[in-house]
């Protein structure tokens, strides 16, 4: 039995599905990537599939390279990930959506006796669009909530209220997310010397740039049981909310698993 494979259709189908998966991953994990980088990552993934068609590899090496090297390559090309932990999480999320798409298409293929490429493309776009709306709705609900936060440093725990700040773009020079705490809420910590203080650059209206003092706390526990190890917490001398509704702005990158 012989099969005719059209590389252009194969590339287009995989490019479309990979692009939707990367968009969902970006939305869920709150990664930053331009449209060009998303398209480049999708092209990398679909190009790899076409390469395997042209240059067949032994089954073991095909699976190993696809599940490890190619998947990590897609993440690196798209999101410029350098952390091993972040890479593992992003690859896991990528494959979650990939298996979800694959399962849906397999079910449709079994019932219809085969799925045309045009239906795969349009169906993948429809599924991706529906999932993107669902993920966005879920995240917006979580972001709008004021949640309980426990910050521990040198064995002393602060219990404060926090809000996930989607506009918080503060990072250390090493690229670690920074949470902003109202300094007045940190009075129990004032007896500790600020050894190893981290200075975080920022910009604000009316001021070209400035520096916020920050420390690396021990843990940050969010409502629901999520624990962030060694979070970077910067101190603001100005209140972070009106009427003291919350005392810390939680960086969105570390707000959800």
Q: How would you describe what is shown here?
A:
This protein is α+β, with helices and mostly antiparallel strands and 257 residues long. The protein contains five helices and nine strands; from the N terminus they run H-H-H-H-H-E-E-E-E-E-E-E-E-E. It has a nine-stranded mixed β-sheet with strand order 4-5-8-3-9-2-1-6-7, with no helix packed on it. A hairpin with a 4-residue loop joins strand 6 and strand 7. Helix 1 packs across helix 2, helix 1 packs parallel to helix 5 and helix 2 runs antiparallel to helix 3. The longest helix is centred in the middle third of the chain and has 29 residues. The radius of gyration is 23 Å and the shape is elongated. The termini are far apart.
What tags apply to this protein structure?
elongated; 257 residues; 9-stranded mixed beta sheet; alpha+beta
Multimeric state: single chain
Q: What is the alpha-carbon Rg in Å? A: 23 Å
Low-pLDDT stretches? none
Instruction: Please give the order of strands in the largest beta sheet.
Output: 4-5-8-3-9-2-1-6-7
- The share of residues in extended strands comes to 15-25%
- Arithmetic mean of pLDDT: 78
**What is the total tally of β strands?**
9
H/E element order: HHHHHEEEEEEEEE
Write down the overall geometry: elongated
Largest sheet: 9 strands, mixed
Q: What level of helicity do the residues show? A: 40-55%
Span between N and C termini? 47 Å
Count the DSSP helices.
5
A few lines on this structure:
The chain is α+β, with helices and mostly antiparallel strands and 257 residues long. It has 5 helices and 9 strands, in the order H-H-H-H-H-E-E-E-E-E-E-E-E-E. It has helices at residues 7-29, 35-54, 59-79, 84-112, 117-143, and strands at 146-153, 156-165, 178-182, 198-204, 207-216, 219-222, 227-229, 232-236, 248-251.
